[in-house]
Amino acid sequence: MHVAESGDECYTVRVGGARLMTVTHIREICEIADKHCDGHLRFTTRNNIEFMVDSKDKVEPLIQDLESRKFDGGSFKFPVGGTGAGVTNIIHTQGWIHCHTPATDASGPVKATMDVLFDDFKDHRLPAQLRVSLACCLNMCGAVHCSDIAILGYHRKPPIIDNEYLDKMCEIPLAIAACPTAAIKPAKVTVGDKELKSVAINQDRCMFCGNCYTMCPSLPLADQEGDGIVIMVGGKVSNRISMPKFSKVVVAFIPNEPPRWGKTTDTIKRIVEAYSAGANKYERLGDWAERIGWERFFEKLNLNLPIISSMISVIPPTTPGARPRSSSSNRSRFDINQSVQGEAMRPPCHLSKRG
Amino acid sequence: MAKHATPLLDQLESGPWPSFVSDLKQEAASRAKNPNNVEFQVNQDCVEDILGVLELSYKHGRTHWKHGGIVGVFGYGGGVIGRYCDQPEMFPGVAHFHTMRINQPGGKYYTTEFLKKLCDLWEFRGSGVTNMHGSTGDIIFIGTSTPQLEEIFYELTHNFNQDLGGSGSNLRTPSDCVGSSRCEYACYDTQAICYALTQEYQDELHRPAFPYKFKFKFDGCPNCCVASIARSDLSFVGTWKDDIKIDQEAVAGYVGGEFAPNAGAHSGRDWGKFDIQKEVVGLCPTGCMKYEDGKLAINNKECTRCMHCINVMPRALHIGDDRGLSMLAGAKAPILDGAQMGSLLVPFIKAEEPYDEIKEIIEAVWDWWMEEGKNRERLGELIKRQGFQKLLEATNIKPVPQHVQEPRHNPYIFWKEEEVEGGWQRDINEFRKYHQR
């Protein structure tokens, strides 16, 4: 409930929604808003729908109406929740329904995850709000890099080179320039009796980002066995108590398991339960993990999943402000793991005191 | 009877969370029945084919959508994303199935009248499938054919007073939080500035001339509900300069249990009686609060305005009156060289129409980025490559202590000649007068 300085009251009822919605569903939303809210509504940045009324006696009939509506398949159309110290709706991307680069689906894993976390969508039992996001590839069209729990689609096989068509389909220099690890170089190949212009890929340098594929359709990398999900945790965007934080990799890979992604949702449920049991009131997941230490965090999660060496981020002391180091020892042309260290004057991403 | 069997997708119909599969099925049924005799301009059974192609992806573990190709509307370089199915014979209804991005209204507020008009248009000239909303904030229309693009664009711009959003290497559709329309934390009118800058930068939004994408997001306070600090090349985060306003009676109300802390956000568990010392004073990141003799005091000079105390006791504590915003630069997701959080560029600036000061900074940032940025290099990457100092020079902003997150660990400073008294040109003979060889 919000009270304006004028004394006017605004009661908001928030409901979850699949962000993928049809006009039939939107018309039903309109019908509800016409019936209860004088024809007004809004959506939140996290794909929730908010119905607002101007007096308290209108709230209960609205909630009852919303909760009574179900799809033929049995799921709620408009579950009320997503507020306070609980789980709210998942920010996500397109996935297999309409994107050309995904390493996993979006709407499916989101539905499966929200089914598992549904009680926490309705409840306020967690230490603080818990933001879950999903991005179906490294482009991360969602704030996955700063979420309490992030579900990220990831490829694990380098591109297949469609030599016969590559020069006809692509600007080779753009494909080469697109690679962040400089793994692609021009090459001449023989297809049948013809010598064709194409590219060669240093597969050991590939980080599977798919950026080359975005520039060149003749370098597809999607693969049923290769693609799957990375789980990252501990990010946040709020400045409350501590600075905004990036999400960190805690599970390097879980295979895609359509239609319900069981291992992914089990892992997420386990993370939520461990956080719920361990964190203090107001403490976000990342703040909790940092307080107890990541070693203890992994211990509490008890995931029985291997820590692979690539997950270990050791940041050796660099020499800030000195000339850039040779990056020959690094896999990347950029200092992906060391980006937070090396600058002379690294301005804050946070608030400042004023004197 | 469904056109394609979808045994895998059917398993996503159960469970409590709204099922997109059930929703797609009801749309497919509605199109098949067509009770309003709509003259569908794209295949009547295209939603059946969406379900079919998605089922195939569930079977194959791979997408069946191909790259864009150049489709769009006349005069605009963005707003439409070309999309083609890689199994057009199996799924002719979605063979050509482009996405349109529609600029969402401020705060994502709608009248049902407008929404229904959008639905009618999209049912008539598209698939009837949408995203409400895409990650950047746009309304997304999923699936139409090339000939429909101009028709939809004309209808939107001429009859709906509505516009396409951004895509490609241009300004992406700016987005905002709910702001002062319904939030007591809003330090400025996010919707007003979002609208004003969207109008001002129409050219940048629709005609790609940038090295890469560029995002504006407007957060009314440091809670950052639209994630501007993590997701936008220029983030506008509301803040204030004077003191937090304290209502001691309401403080007593929280202490006495009359009001639930954090507006009842923790109601699902018994956390014990509200303890202002532990939950507010003790969690203040700068330790600038104290609670003595039933009175709460804040040393505002030491406050970083993190919002925790205000979030916990919104009836008792209120943002100050000298309000404005901080501008941060360079946030982005990991592609290509790692994720970046926004870096503070302007500690405080007033957010007042016509926003001339803010526009001046935006345009200086763009000038620098367009001059120096490489193809597909985000602003944050340019800042990293050339140094934040270059951004300060480009925007003519003087370095201040607020710019320093952590002072440097070594003294190897590359002084410039003009920064050193007397310059660098010296006479060896003069030196040798005092120092023999």
Care to give the gist of this entry?
The complex is a heterodimer of chains A (355) and B (437). Chain A is built from ten helices and eleven strands. Chain A has 355 residues and is α+β, with helices and mostly antiparallel strands.
In helices, the fraction of residues of chain B equals 25-40%
For the record, the CATH architecture of the largest domain in chain B stands as 2-Layer Sandwich
Let me know the largest β-sheet of chain B.
5 strands, mixed
- Lateral strand order in the biggest sheet of chain B: 8-9-10-15-16
Total of helices of chain B: 15
Q: N-to-C SSE series of chain A? A: EEEHEEHHHEEHHEEHEEHHH
Low confidence ranges of chain A:
317-350
What is the number of strand segments of chain A?
11
CATH class of the largest domain in chain B: Alpha Beta
- Overall SS class of chain B: alpha+beta
Question: Would you write up a description of this structure?
Answer:
The complex is a heterodimer of chains A (355) and B (437). Helices cover 26% and strands 17% of the residues of chain A. Chain A has 355 residues and is an alpha+beta fold. The longest helix of chain A is centred in the last third of the chain and has 17 residues, at 262-278. Mean pLDDT of chain A is 88; it is low at 317-350. By secondary structure, chain B is α+β, with helices and mostly antiparallel strands. Chain B folds into 3 domains: 7-159, Alpha-Beta Plaits (2-Layer Sandwich), CATH 3.30.70; 175-239 and 325-417, 2-Layer Sandwich (Sulfite Reductase Hemoprotein, domain 1); 245-318, Alpha-Beta Plaits (2-Layer Sandwich), CATH 3.30.70. Chain B contains 15 helices and 16 strands. A 5-stranded mixed β-sheet of chain B has the order 8-9-10-15-16. A 4-stranded antiparallel β-sheet of chain B has the order 2-4-7-6, with no helix packed on it. Chain B has a two-stranded antiparallel sheet with strand order 1-3. Chains A and B meet through β3, α1, β4 and α3 of A and α1, α2, α3, β1 and β5 of B.
